Amino acid sequence: MEVLRIATSGSVDDGKSTLIGRLLYDTNSIPQDKMEALHAASKRKGLDFTDLSLLTDGLVAEREQGITIDVAHIYFSTPTRKYIIADTPGHIEYTRNMVTGASNAQVSLILIDARKGIVEQTHRHFFIANLLRIPYLVVCVNKMDLVDYSEARFNQIVEDFQVMLDNASFKGQEVKFIPISSLYGENVASRNGTISWYQGDTLLEYLEQVSFDHEDNQHPARFPIQSVIRPRTTEYHDFRGFAGKVVSGHFNVGDEVVSLPSGQKSKIKTIEQFEKQLTVAHARESVVITLEDEIDSSRGNMLVKTTEVPQQLKEVSANICWMDQQKLTNGKTYLLQHGVNRVKAKVQQIQYITDVTNHLQKADKTEMGLNDIGKVSIKTAAPIFADAYQNNPANGAFILIDEFNNTTVAVGFID
Question: Which pTM does this prediction carry?
Answer without folding.
Answer: 0.84
